[in-house]
């Protein structure tokens, strides 16, 4: 089937005209649901990801769309099973995208902020179909952190169509940001916050995991610009930020001092890889002169 995607053309056209993409009245994008292997220290896991091409990439791609405009999305499902699609807490497609099929649909206009887009079916949840959706964010410096926790035994079982063994305790062995675990988080250009002194950035965070997470910032307080669940926190300035399952939030960071500062999960088990410390959900803010 012919895939019609104006996205790059539109971006370049607007770039040449010097027009900001956010002035568009609607946006469109294409996602591939791909299958591939995710390698970690002690395990290789079969996973699913939303990618921007038919080539498997270990990180779900971040979707970017203007505020108050419809997003026309085409999803191509290369998996062997059907998947649903939704924006957590906000909107759901209400039907399955069938295996080896393509579906185009319209997501109604959304307010400025960060949301989780995902497939809520069992394979989608356990194998990682969950990403960051950024709406109406216009700062020149933007980062995103897609948080996940992974238990290889459950993933293997779900991938092979076996029993989930849900009654066994959930003991995840990997904790990742954009599918990177420390120390590899340092090579993730979307997650490793590299800025110059005086810069300001937004950090879009989504909790795609099956447990709540809490992040601790060293050296900085960050301001809540948006959040989808704990909305009373909007406007707060904090150095410790809890994220409930499925929550999406936008934080504002002002790079007002030089140096390298860690940001890490405050739950010790979540800064390990297969039980070894340090690892997991740990990245850095690197401010240069
Ligand atoms: Cu700390």
Overview of this protein structure:
The chain is mainly beta and about 290 residues long. It has two domains: about 5-135, Sandwich (Immunoglobulin-like); about 175-289, Cupredoxins -  blue copper proteins (Immunoglobulin-like, Sandwich). Helix content is about 10%, strand content about 40%. The chain is built from three helices and 20 strands. The strands form four sheets. A six-stranded mixed sheet has the order 11-10-13-18-15-16. The longest helix is centred in the first third of the chain and has 11 residues, at about 5-15. It is globular and about 50 Å long. Mean pLDDT is about 90; it is low at about 1-25. It binds copper (II) ion (CU). Copper (II) ion (CU) binds near residues 216 and 264. The site of copper (II) ion has 3 residues, from loops.
Search tags:
binds copper (II) ion; mainly beta; 2 domains; disordered N terminus; Immunoglobulin-like; five-stranded mixed β-sheet; 289 residues; six-stranded mixed β-sheet
Structural class: mainly beta
Query: In angstroms, what separates the terminal alpha carbons?
Result: 51 Å
- SS strand fraction: 35-45%
SSE order, one letter for each helix or strand: HEEEEEEEEHEEHEEEEEEEEEE
The major β-sheet equals: 6 strands, mixed
Average pLDDT works out at 92
Number of helices: 3
List of distinct ligands in this structure: copper (II) ion
Shape: globular
CATH topology of the largest domain: Immunoglobulin-like
Report the CATH C-level class of the largest domain.
Mainly Beta
| Structural domain tally | 2
């Amino acid at each position: 089937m012919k895939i019609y995607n104006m996205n790059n053309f539109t971006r370049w056209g607007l770039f040449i005209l010097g027009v900001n993409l956010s002035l568009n009245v609607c946006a469109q994008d294409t996602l591939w649901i791909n299958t591939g292997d995710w390698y970690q220290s002690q395990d290789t896991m079969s996973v699913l990801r939303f990618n921007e091409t038919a080539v498997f990439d270990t990180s779900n791609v971040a979707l970017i769309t203007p505020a108050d405009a419809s997003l026309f999305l085409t999803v191509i499902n290369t998996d062997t099973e059907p998947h649903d699609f939704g924006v957590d807490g906000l909107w759901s497609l209400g039907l399955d995208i069938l295996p080896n099929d393509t579906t185009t649909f319209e997501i109604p206009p959304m307010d400025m902020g960060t949301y989780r887009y995902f497939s809520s079916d069992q394979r989608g949840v356990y194998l990682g179909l969950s990403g960051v959706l950024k709406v109406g964010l216009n700062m020149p410096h933007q980062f995103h952190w897609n948080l996940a926790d992974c238990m290889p035994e459950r993933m293997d079982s779900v991938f092979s169509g076996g029993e989930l063994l849900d009654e066994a305790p959930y003991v995840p062995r990997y904790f990742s940001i954009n599918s990177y675990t420390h120390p590899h988080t340092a090579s993730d250009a979307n997650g490793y916050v590299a800025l110059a002194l005086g810069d300001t950035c937004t950090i879009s965070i989504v909790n795609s995991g099956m447990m709540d997470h809490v992040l601790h910032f060293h050296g900085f307080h960050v301001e809540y610009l948006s959040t989808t669940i704990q909305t009373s926190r909007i406007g707060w300035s904090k150095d410790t930020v809890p994220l409930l399952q499925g929550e999406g939030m936008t934080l504002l960071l002002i790079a007002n001092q030089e140096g390298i500062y860690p940001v890490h999960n405050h739950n010790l088990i979540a800064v390990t890889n297969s039980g070894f410390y340090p690892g997991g959900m740990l990245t850095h803010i690197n401010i240069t002169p």
